[in-house]
Amino acid sequence: MARSDHPVRLVAFFSHPIQYYGPLFRRLAARPEVDLTVVFCSDAGVRETVDRGFGVTFKWDIPLLQGYRHRFLRRPLLEIPEVLERGGFDAVWVSGCTDSWAWRLFLASWRRHVPVLLFGDSHLLNAKPWYKRSIKRLVYGWLFPRLAAALYVGRANRAFFEHYGVRPERLFFVPHCVDNDFFR
Q1: Model-level pTM greater than 0.70?
Q2: Sorting pLDDT into bands at 50, 70 and 90, what band is 3?
C-alpha cells in the first residue's frame, strides 16, 4: 500500500454510474488520505438508457459524476491494462465479478501485484439448480480467496462471500448509501 505520507491511490471500476454510489465516491474523494479515480465501463444512466427489466427509458436526474475524478472506457477489455499501467494505483476496487471486463481487471491487477477489493451485493437467498451452484462453487472458490478484501453490503451478502471462501478478516462492511442532504 501507499506510504503513510502519501494518499492511497485507489481506482474503482464500476459498470456504469449508479445513483447510490455517487455519495460514497464524493466522500472518499474528499478524504486527504485517499486519491480516488472512478472508471466506468459504460455511460448508461448518464445518457438516456433503456432498462430492459422494466421496459422503460430513463436518465437519472441526480448528479452522478460530480465531486470525484472519473473517466469512461470505450473498450474496457482493451483499455483496462493501460489504465492500471499508467495509474500507479495501490489498490483496485471492482464492483461485481460476472462481466468479462471484471475478469480482465482481476488478471491485469494480479499480474501487476495490485491488491483487488471486490464489492458486491450477491446473496444465497434464492435456490439455484445444482449445476449453477456447482459452477459458482468452482469459479468463486478459485476467485474469492485471491482477493485482498471483499466489501459486503449486508448480512446476506457477507454470508455469500463466506460461503465461497472469503476469510472473516478480509470482509469489510460497505453498505449502499444515498445523499440525504440532496433528498431533503
Answers
A1: yes
A2: low
